[in-house]
Amino acid sequence: SGMEVDAYILQASYRIQSGKPVVHLYGRATSGESILVRDDRPRPFFYAGAAAAAAALAAGAIRVTSSSWCNFAAQPVCRVEVAVPPDVPGVRDRLQQQGFDTYEADVRFAMRYLIERNIRGGARIIGDATPGQGADWVFDNPEMVAAEVSLESRVLSFDIETNPDATRLLAIALYGRNRQDELSDEVLIWDPQNRQMPERATGFADERALLGAFCERVRDIDPDVLTGWNVIDFDLSVLSRVAARVRHPFLLGRDNTALRIRPARGYFGSGQAQIPGRLVLDGIDLIRGAFLRFDEYGLDAVASRILGEGKVLGTGYNDKAQEISRQYAEDLPSFAFYARTDARLAVQILEKLELIPLAFRRSRLSGMTPDRVSASIASFDALYLAELGKLKTVAPTVVSGAERGSPQAGGAVFEPLPGLHELVWVFDFKSLYPSLMRTFNIDPLAYVSAEEADEGDIQLVTGAAFRREPGILPRLLDELFPAREAAKQAGDEIASQAIKILMN
Questions:
Q1: Helix pair 332-353, 355-366: axis angle to 10 deg
Q2: Rounded Cα distance, 463 and 445, in Å
Q3: Fewer CB within 10 Å: N-end or C-end of the chain?
Q4: Contact call for residues 125 and 146 (beta carbons, < 8 A)
Q5: Sheet of 279-282, strand order
Q6: Where would I find the H helices in 194-319?
Q7: Calculated CA dihedral for residues 187, 193, 199, 200, nearest 10 degrees
């Protein structure tokens, strides 16, 4: 029957079902139930110059329509529709090779769904709902509008222990509160010898039973956020390898699709794990993403600095892995306590630093889901494209690095004069780049090339010029500056930090 709920959107993705892409949005309603929105109406599309229509059809588009939208130079564009999102790159590249410009062919399909509706975290969902298997309520093709929603997310931390070469799973520890707000603080142990188990520990005769129990616990606790320390590149990766070896489906999500892990790319990259309906937020990534600096990012080092509490093993052991194996074999109570402590420390560090609320607050500012707020370029795109859409203007497709030419230059740095100086004064400009952007109306949309510039434009010494009509970036900053001051005045550290990161 017809329902209207306010929910926080945790995850945006899509599935292809009988040849049609279906947007899947997972979230949690303010009333506490988990929800899934499925929408099979949107079609994947991008824009191209109006002259590209025939070429686009020849290149594999299924429909090309003229549109009232324009590019930055106010030239009309046409809308190029394809059957499924993976078709976009091929059609786009064939058009680019023929010399046609394309626009917004790099925007993710499910993200566009949120951007078009200006949904940033919160949404009001209006439509018919049916009880779901993994999510409490499933909405098919509802109406969705942006709404202010904040969420106290349910967080579950877990940590695994393995033999030294991580081929055998010895234990999985869990720490978090369930739907009834009861604390789970326990460890599941692989124990073929069927030994007497210490408190808060449960033994399992084989790894398959252990994995099954872990999946069951996760479903019972039903967290919005799974966390831990290096949990994507280590814990989940090891668990999925073990699951493959013992042929366990290893379903952790709010539906029965498998975990997907994307390994880290590049020096700064971190791996991403996708579990339907649950966010995987890695403790180390959250710390780095909030620009907190530590000499070491190991759990021991961070816990002793933030909580003043080290690990149970002490630091005297040369080989931690050997000591864990020894405890597992000879001293189960210590082993169990050690494993549970790891899971607990991860949560307590994040709580002390308020890093999960920070990720959610950043998500409400940019519209990125909380597991992707550190993707700064994508966050910027989400905000900027939402504003461009109101002006019926399309942005150029971002092409790969090789085609982009020279890297952007940074600020000028003066050569230092070696020696001792008297009366040295240091000045720091408050929010230098944002201030310059507001002063000179620096904005892609307002940019005028030196050849086209006239007296009325704001001319910079570099020869660049910007129109005086209000630009998008200065306007966004006009909203963010006072918002940050207000957050500081109100003592809301989380909001202040989130806004500062976004401004920069």
A1: 40
A2: 17
A3: N
A4: no
A5: 201-204, 183-190, 169-177, 155-162, 225-228, 279-282
A6: 207-221, 237-245, 283-289, 299-306
A7: 20
pLDDT given at position 408: 63
Distance CA 397, CA 106 (A): 6
Instruction: Tell the burial category of 247 from Cβ atoms under 10 Å away from its Cβ (0-12, 13-18, 19+).
Output: exposed
Q: Is 262:316 a contact under the CB 8 Å cutoff?
A: no
Cα torsion at 196, 199, 200, 203 (round to 10°)? 0
CB 299 within 8 A of CB 345: yes
Distance CA 331, CA 329 (A): 6
pLDDT of residue 316: 47
pLDDT value of residue 268: 55
DSSP output for 35-54: EEEEE-----EEEEEGGGHH
- In contact, 214 and 228? CB cutoff 8 Å: no
Give the integer Cα–Cα distance in Å for 270 and 230: 10
Output the pTM of the full model: 0.88
Output the DSSP codes for 68-104.
EEE-TTS-EEEEEE-SSGGGHHHHHHHHHHTT--EES
Residue 94 burial class via C-beta count within 10 angstroms: exposed 0-12, middle 13-18, buried 19 and up = middle
Of residues 280, 158, 255, the one with CA closest to residue 210 = 158
Q: Tell me the residue length of the chain.
A: 504
What's the DSSP call for residue 188? Answer: E
8 Å CB contact between 187 and 201: yes
Residues 302 and 230: beta-carbon distance below 8 Å: no
State which residues of the chain have pLDDT below 70.
1, 266-269, 310-318, 400-409
Calpha distance 68→75 (Å, rounded): 10
Residue with tokens 């590049």: 266
* Contact of 477 with 503, CB cutoff 8 Å: yes
